[in-house]
Amino acid sequence: MLTYLLNAFSGPASPFMYGLLFVLAFLIAVVIERTVSLARYRCDGEALYKRAAEWAAGGAAPKLGDTPMERVVSAGMEYRDPELAWEAMAAASVEAGMTIRRRISYLSTVASIATMLGLFGTVYGLILAFGALGDVAAAERAAQLSQGSSTAMATTAFGLLVAIPALGAHAIADANARELLGGIERIATRIVLALKAARK
Prior knowledge:
By secondary structure, the protein is mostly helical. It is 82% helix and 0% strand. It has helices spanning 2-7, 14-40, 45-56, 68-76, 82-101, 104-131, 138-199. Helix 2 packs antiparallel against helix 6, helix 2 (14-40) packs parallel to helix 7 (138-199) and helix 3 packs parallel to helix 7.
């Protein structure tokens, strides 16, 4: 199958194949960037909560890192009033969510574009194939039918080979983003509870 797809880069399907190759390269770049970024955004939530709880009990504000969770906690540490701390963390979590989810939607868009581009190539291949049914010589008819069928099948196959991993990558990245955002919400809630407990 690999040889078949490689041969399609030199036939009538070449514009679609190179277009899909560009989409595949973009997909790989986004997957690498998001994988590295989401891994870098992780931090030890339990250790962070312990430091925040010590601050809530009256200790000095600790120096935190630059992950989205730590930025949200830092925003809450500007206030010792539970309501104000919650509002500050809620505002910071919006920016954190934008940072965590950045470019994840591109993955589903890539899947759609790859599928549509593959289908476009399929339609073009069918047009070539049906064009061979006209008033042409038998030898030319056979060549056009072969080219049309090859174009249709190659672009469909390559489009799906790009779209399916893109959908899988989107599902994984979205699940990781949800996990990170859920962790931020949990620690923000626990910090507010610790502030309320310290006021009693």
